[in-house]
Amino acid sequence: MTAITQATPVPNRAASALLKRVLSNAALTVGLAIIAIIIVLALFANWIAPFDPLHVDPLARYQRPFSGWHILGTDELGRDILSRLIYGARFALLVAILPTVIALLIGGAIGLSAGYIGGAWDSVVMRVFDVMFAFPGILLALGISAALGPGLGSMIIAMVVVTIPAFGRIVRGVVLGLKEELYVEAARTLGYSHTRIALRHILPNVLGPAVVYGTLQTGRNVILSASLSFLGLGPQPPTPEWGQMLSSGRTAIATAAHVATIPGLAIVFLAVGFNLIGDAARDMLDPRFNKDRS
Where in the cell is it found (predicted)? Predict the structure, then answer.
């Protein structure tokens, strides 16, 4: 009789190695867990939230956490804080991630072209960035948001403008070193076009530092967006946005501290989650940093 052998599934070694590496990094694991929880809350808010986040109940104003049906209490209008927090996760993730992605694309393109082309174009770009760096980021964002008017769109535009110079300078610095490498000189010798050299040979090596900084910048954007909303330049009431919730709760901080404390803690947790991921990504993608620490 012919022996019949069953093929056993071969595990994906690359995926297993990556998972093992992720789990071995405590900071990365915690950061991913925090972000994953908030993403789940944002995606399934319609099913998870126990109440309508816009429902007003004047008879239930300033209820304390665990004092009734409202697990995290109610705000100054009797709205359920937990429900508003869950729905607010959508805005928190949007204003943290979207400006970072847009700024990475625009700033990265400008920095790549400035570093590779050099000359007058590089000088003009760097002088413009220097002027923008002369202003504190929060003040520049405040000025742009105030000029455009309060709202989600103007806040995102302000955050993008503030973030572009940092991405541009980082990418430019990496490109200045890469364009002198031997493989780039070899590509020029072979007659490859400048566009092909920039996109095929230089860009892939720029993505690592840019993505690491982008992850860290996402955490900063959480604080920046909350600051703008706290000052009334973000989404307007009754939108359930964490910064706006923090602002509305400050008037009752002495008598109902939970109204401001709970959204404030949510902002901190989200920022910490992105920062932990950014720190871990830097450790994994930048061997020189690990070497310096050892």
Answer: Cell membrane
